Amino acid sequence: MNLKQLEVFIKVAESGSFSKGAEAAFITQSTVSQHISALESEFGLKLLDRTGKGALPTEGGKILLERARKLVEYAREIPVALARFKGIEEAELTIAGSSIPGEYMIPAALPLLISRFPGVTIVLLQGDSRDVLGKLLAEEIEFGVVGGRFEEESLVFTPLAQDELVLIAPAGHRWARMSGITKEELLAESFVLRETGSGTGRAVSKALRQAGIDPAILKVAVHLGSNEAVKRAVMAGIGVSYVSALSVQRELEQGALIQVPVADVEIKREFFLVERRGRELSPAAVAFKEIMMEIYAEASLKGGA
């Protein structure tokens, strides 16, 4: 069965005549007969009753006619939809971000994308960095934004922006009266940390090792699955934590949390746009990627996103 056969069948059934169907399809009557015979052979059913007055659909033919009309209609819409897609006039873009990109960076870029391309619908998924890469490898998304580069040959990591991870403590903590603390004072506190697999957790562990601190000796009170949960736990006095400076600006301004410098410990990490190697992005994905690069290249020049 192919689309041409269905189109010919529709014309014959609607006109009630092989000759009129052939005329409407701009083919010979013998070619029409071949198309109808092919359909009847494939389905094992008689689809048209040939009478002296013409050709009428059988009961099986009526079932085919109803569905064939829908198929042909959808097929005719395909070139129009693809033409719109090529012009980014009508498209759906599915992307994903790890915690900070998904909660802060990507949403900040959405207004610009929507203003430039109002026909694009965005589906934004979230997870930790490994979740995002898994979705990318499974081809569930077109690209992702994660905190850190991973060893995966089938993926391409493009640097996007830098982030600083800052140590936070609850308002009223004894550290609030200090201009900074030592590494020894840091180790004396209980910690609230992100779950295994998060980019934040990987960046903190790496920076502490570089500062001569073994992350394994931290006193961890709890592991939590989101930045919001971490901040609430710190505000409740469960422990201190390292979080992205992007995620804690409001709480610092409101005085709900304090930021505490640690001597000889500075934690920065880079965010990356990630896509599958050798796979062409859709026009909508290319447009959004360019907008993300535009926004965060400017932010980085001002001292980090």
From TrEMBL:
Keywords: DNA-binding, Transcription, Transcription regulation. CDD domains: PBP2_CysL_like. Pfam families: HTH_1 (PF00126), LysR_substrate (PF03466). Residues 1-58 form the HTH lysR-type domain. The keyword DNA-binding applies. SUPFAM superfamilies: Periplasmic binding protein-like II, Winged helix' DNA-binding domain. It comes from the Bacteria. The keyword Transcription regulation applies. GO terms for molecular function: DNA-binding transcription factor activity; transcription cis-regulatory region binding. InterPro entries: LysR-like_Sec_metab (IPR047788), LysR_HTH_N (IPR000847), LysR_subst-bd (IPR005119), WH-like_DNA-bd_sf (IPR036388), WH_DNA-bd_sf (IPR036390). NCBIfam families: LysR_Sec_metab (NF040786). PANTHER family: HTH-TYPE TRANSCRIPTIONAL REGULATOR, LYSR FAMILY TRANSCRIPTIONAL REGULATOR. Belongs to the LysR transcriptional regulatory family. This is Transcriptional regulator, LysR family. It comes from Citrifermentans bremense.
